[in-house]
Specification:
With about 80 residues, the chain is mainly alpha-helical. The protein has four helices and no strands.
Length: about 80
């Protein structure tokens, strides 16, 4: 899976979890929780959904590594089992 495909999955899941957000509202370099006003519960739902789809679990110690769409894309690309 390419980084662009991973990024699309992440964005699709953000839109699924927060239906009031539009794709144009998502700033790839912006902190997901702050820029989109997603609470910690929804952030955990996002990580759980991505784990189900991509098979990559993000441990709590790595949450700071996935705070933006760009960082999350890189994290999943590096940890994705091919």
């Amino acid at each position: 899976m390419t980084q662009e495909q991973i990024k699309k999955v992440i964005i699709d899941q953000i839109l699924e979890i927060a239906p009031d957000i539009e794709e144009g509202d998502i700033i790839p370099e912006g902190n997901i929780q702050r820029s989109l006003e997603i609470d910690s519960f929804d952030f955990l739902k996002l990580l759980t959904a991505l784990n189900d789809i991509l098979g990559v679990e993000v441990p709590e110690r790595d949450y700071a590594k996935v705070e933006t769409v760009e960082h999350m894309t890189q994290y999943f690309a590096q940890n994705l089992v091919q």
